[in-house]
Specification:
Blueprint lengths: L6 E3 L12 E3 L8 H8 L1 H38 L18 E5 L5 E5 L6 E9 L3 E5 L21 E10 L6 E9 L5 H11 L4 E6 L4 E9 L4 E7 L1 H6 L13 E2 L4 E6 L6 E6 L3 E4 L2 E5 L17 E2 L8 E7 L2 H26 L11 H4 L4 H11 L8 H15 L25 E3 L9 E3 L2 H10 L1 H9 L7 H6 L3 H13 L10 H7 L15 H51 L1
Antiparallel strand pairs: 1-2, 3-18, 4-16, 5-13, 5-18, 6-10, 6-12, 7-8, 7-11, 9-10, 13-14, 14-17, 15-16, 19-20
């Protein structure tokens, strides 16, 4: 008998199509079975490769989308984040053409609105606005606000403090602060209960420097008032507001208004004023006062609105207000640069032609190439991946319309005299590109007109850029919104609000959200993750078919080997017999 057999040894993945066994075949026929099976599987392998190549194209498209989303998010965070007041394009204060300095900002600081008069101001502060408050005597709270009430002599169980108070609205209210003392209750827990049960109208705190617990109204001014009507004795004693005999120690300090006198530019006199808050705006100047700098007896409520003379004890703070258009100009100019950079990228991607000579590489092709060659090839293969993408084209159209659509009120009238793109006296000096290929790009076409608008028409500029609309109709809301307000809405619709990542915004959802989990594919909305999932199902199916074909072919060749083995054995026996 000939020493020829067919065997299957499970030692790894080799052979055509990549099975999970090592097949030793062709010993009887002399055929290269692996090579033959591989050729027979060529059509199957081509189908698998094409499915994987399509999957790679979708993956590259998803990566390109994510890069664009990141760029748009960066633009959004840089200019439409309310927390970044310096660059927030939707705030009227961002368009103030005034620069303000204070000779002593620890006493008084200031900001100037667009209607403020340029020049030098002086301010005397006789008294600051204060809350109505009740402060207890010093207590032995060695752990500060974390001191437990039990350590201060309060028994466990329910306690109360009955408060009567008014805030800036002048409405008298009474609230019973009910608190359940446990082994872990602290001074801070009591303070939190006072704040929560008065909805923030009254607050409380422990001052670790003075060792005193205090209760106060949230508003400042002469209108607020506060009193303790009654309460649990050991609790009031613990916070320094009663003695051990139950005698009341607390007194209520009434709130007070701020009293001040201001001398404005081109005036020789100080005029007395008052306000319930330490932050107030007068004639376009927003003052923030912190300390007293005058004992002038003429600064009294009886002289409100009247001119007064100064005294030797006055130590006025000087506020200098100058006109400065550079800050606003730079803000708008820098935004345009970043905006155009993103728009340019989008337009390039949409018009980029695909080179059909470069397709995603198969695993077999990569095996014979260097990393550099693979990188260069894939760079070519990625070209045109976003060509004519409908989502991105729609985004560009929206951005272009944001600048070219007039900003009107509910009656259809222009909200601002600064007509965008107009060539009249009050034109803004910004226009969309006249080159078709640059589409939604914008540029400063007349710097003098823009500077004039910033310097002399800031209020009109604010209307043009930041007007908001409360219309529920999508089209009307767009028409009635300012230019930068529109861009903010467009960014929200396409990449989501600031701080959100995975959301239902158009681009973000398309790039990141998988909704198809069906075993056959097609159960989603066609997002890129849906497409990747469907493509993976196809790859799995085609690979399974190829593996089935591979097994069938090997089985057929095995049968041939067995038949040849029998034939060889018969020939060997016959030869032996004849000999």
């Amino acid at each position: 008998m000939a020493d020829s057999t067919t065997s299957s040894v499970p030692v790894g993945s080799t052979g055509a199509g990549g099975g999970n066994t090592l097949r030793i075949t062709g010993l009887n026929t002399g055929l290269d079975i692996d090579a033959m099976v591989k050729k027979m599987l060529t059509a199957d392998q081509t189908k698998v490769d094409k499915a994987k190549q399509q999957q790679q194209l979708i993956t590259w498209k998803q990566e390109a989308y994510k890069d664009i989303i990141t760029s748009l998010k960066d633009l959004q965070s840089a200019y439409f984040d309310v927390a970044d007041s310096a660059n927030y394009l939707l705030s009227s204060s961002s368009y103030s053409n005034m620069a303000v300095s204070s000779s002593d900002s620890t006493v008084v600081s200031a900001k100037a609105l667009t209607n403020a008069e340029v020049g030098n101001y002086k301010i005397l502060v006789k008294q600051t606005a204060k809350v109505a408050d009740i402060t207890g005597t010093s207590i032995s709270a060695s752990s500060g606000s974390s001191t437990k009430l039990l350590n201060l002599g309060v028994s466990t169980g329910d306690v109360e403090i009955n408060l009567s108070y008014k805030n800036g609205d002048g409405v008298e209210k009474s609230t019973s602060i009910e608190f359940s003392v446990t082994n872990s209750s602290t001074l801070q827990d009591l303070a939190d209960a006072i704040k929560n049960q008065t909805d923030g109208a009254v607050t409380a705190k422990f001052n670790e420097l003075t060792g005193k617990f205090s209760i106060q109204t949230s508003d400042t001014g002469s209108t607020p008032s506060l009193s303790i009507e009654s309460g649990t004795d050991d609790l009031l004693e613990a916070i320094g507001m009663k003695d051990s005999s139950g005698n009341t120690l607390y007194t209520s300090n009434a709130g007070q208004d701020a009293l001040f006198a201001i001398k404005e530019p081109n005036s020789n006199d100080y005029v007395v004023g008052k306000n319930s808050s330490n932050n107030f705006t007068i004639n376009g100047i927003t003052y923030s006062i912190s300390e007293v700098n005058s004992t002038n007896d003429n600064i009294e409520e009886s002289n409100i609105g009247e001119s007064i003379s100064t005294t030797s004890g006055d130590n006025a703070v000087s506020i200098s207000v100058t006109r400065d258009t550079s800050k606003v100009h730079d803000l708008i100019s820098n935004f345009i640069d970043k905006y155009n950079e993103i728009v340019g990228t989008l337009q390039d991607k949409l018009s980029e032609k695909k080179d059909y000579d470069y397709s995603p590489l198969t695993d077999s092709q990569k095996s014979s190439m260097s990393d550099t060659d693979i990188s260069n090839w894939e760079k070519k293969a990625k070209q045109g991946i976003l060509r004519n993408d409908s989502n991105l084209q729609n985004l560009l159209d929206q951005l272009a319309n944001a600048f070219t659509t007039p900003v009107v009120d509910s009656s259809g009238n222009n909200v601002s005299t600064l007509y965008f793109g107009d060539t009249g006296t009050n034109a803004i000096g910004i226009d969309t590109s006249s080159t078709y290929s640059e589409g939604a790009k914008i540029s400063i076409v007349d710097d003098e007109k823009l500077t004039d608008a910033i310097a002399n028409h800031p209020d009109e500029l604010i209307k043009l850029f930041t007007t908001t609309s409360d219309s529920t109709d999508t089209t009307k809301k767009f028409e009635q919104s300012g230019i930068f307000e529109r861009i903010d809405q467009i960014l929200d619709e396409n990449v989501g609000v600031i701080g959100s990542t995975l959301n239902a915004a158009v681009l973000t959802k398309y790039a990141n959200v998988q909704e198809d989990y069906s075993t056959t594919g097609g159960g989603g909305t066609g997002t890129l993750p849906d497409q990747l999932y469907q493509q993976q199902l196809l790859v799995n199916k085609l690979t399974e078919i190829m593996n089935d074909h591979q097994t069938k072919y090997y089985n057929q060749f095995t049968q041939l080997e067995v038949a040849m083995e029998k034939l060889n054995a018969q020939q060997s026996t016959l030869s032996l017999y004849l000999s």
